[in-house]
Amino acid sequence: MMQLFEKQMNKCINAILTIVFLAASLSVSASTKELDRVITVVNESVILSSEIDALKRTVSLNVQAKSMPPDDILQQQILDQLILEELQLQEATRLNIRIDDLRLDQAIEEMHRDNKPSIKLLHSELKSNGISWSQYRERIRREITISEVRNLQVRSRINILPQEIESLAAQLNEKNYAEVEYRISHIQLRLDENADKSEYDSVVTHANELVSYLNAKQDFTELALANSKGPKALDGGDWGWMRLEEMPTIFADHIGNNSKGSIIGPFRSGVGYHIIKITDLRGLKSVAATEVNTRHILIKPSIILSDEGAKRQLTLMIQQIQEGKKTFEELAQQYSMDSLSAVNGGSLGWQSSAIYATEFRNKIDSLQEAQISEPFKTIHGWHIAEVLGRRQADYSDAEIKNRAYRMLLDRKFNEEAQTWLKELRAGAYVKHVEDNNDYN
C-alpha cells in the first residue's frame, strides 16, 4: 500500500520566508563569492559559509531577538541541520532519486492552490526579496528530494503487527483521541545510553533546571533555541499542530489527560531526556469518508529503463485497452511491478484516497468513474489508474482499524526517521575545516 510522508515539506511552505532565504544560498553574488569559504566537508561535498549565513538570517527573522541563543550555539545548531540535509541529498543521489520539472511544477501548484500565496503573488514576494523564480524552484526540488529519500529508506524499516492495530483500535474506541489536535513544543537533551554517571547526573540536573525555568514562565522558545538538540530546535522546539497519530510514541505516551499549558517531563528515551509543553489544543470533527475502488498499473524506472521509457510503456498499454486488444486486468497481471495488486488485476480495493501518496491521491480524486488516467509519476514510479466506483463509508470498526494502522505508521515513521538519520550521520566522514576536526 502506497504511503507518502511529506508533512515536513507542507509545514515548510507555511513559513515562506524560510524557503525564500534558504533559496538565496543557492545563488551567491560575485562579491559574496570572494568571501565565501568551506566550513565543513561532508563526505565528497562541502558546506559553505554562505549557506550558514542564509539559514542564520532565516532564524533571526522567525525568532524574536530576545530569544536568540549565543552565536556559537546557533552556529552549531545550523551546521548540524545542514550536515543532515547534505547527507540525505547524497543518499538521494546514490539511489538515483530525481525530481523532474513536471513533478516540481505540479508540487508548487498544489502547495499554492488553497490558502497559500498564489503563484502570481509568490513571484512578487520572491522578487521583492531579491530571489529569482529558478532559485525558489531549486529549493523546493531540494526539499522534495530530501523528503522522498527519507520516505523510501524509513518506510522499509517499519513493521506493524496485527495485534498492535487491534490494541490501538480498542484505545481509539474508548478514548476517541483522534478528535483532538495538540500543539507541542519540545526540548531534547542528548545522553548516550552508555554515558557514565557524571554525564548522566549532569544531563538530569540540566533537565530539571529547565523544567523549573519553564514552570517559572520563562520563554520556551528561548530555552529550546539555546539548549535543545532535537529536530525542531531551530524552530524554538515547535512541532506545530499534531494529532496523537502524528507524534513520536514517546510524546503520545506522556500526553495523558494533560491540558493546555502543561509542562511534561523530563522523561527518558534512547537518545536522551525530553521536556514537552502542550502549547495549545483543539478538537477535531469526524466526517464520513468517501472511499474509492481503484486499480492501477505500476512501472518502476531503473538503470535500463528511463522515466520516458516507463511513461511510453504505459501510454502503449492505454492504447491497447482502448483498442480492445488487452484488458486492464491482463496488462496489470503481466506488467505491473506492484506485486500485491498485480495478482488481482491491479485492484487496490475500496480505500479512502487519503491513504495514498499525494500525487496518486490527487490523480484518482480528479478521475471520473471508468476513466483511465494518463501516465503520471509518484515516489513509487509511473502509473496509470482507473476509478471503478465511489461510496460513502460509515465510521465503522473497519475504519477505526484503518485509522489505527495509519497512526502506528506515522508514529513509527517519526521514530525510525530519527534512528535512520543518526545512523546516516554516524557513518559519514565530516570534517570541520576551521578547527581541522574529524567527526565520524
UniProtKB/TrEMBL annotation:
Free-text comment on this protein's domains from its UniProt entry: The PPIase activity resides only in the second parvulin domain. The N-terminal region and the C-terminal tail are necessary and sufficient for the chaperone activity of SurA. The PPIase activity is dispensable for SurA to function as a chaperone. The N-terminal region and the C-terminal tail are also required for porin recognition.
Record-annotated PpiC domain positions: 179-280, 289-389
The keyword RNA-binding is assigned to this record: no
Name of the gene this protein is made from: surA
Gene Ontology CC: one annotated term: outer membrane-bounded periplasmic space
Lineage top rank: taxon: Bacteria
Enzyme class per UniProt: isomerase
GO MF annotation: an example: unfolded protein binding
Protein's name according to its UniProt entry: Chaperone SurA
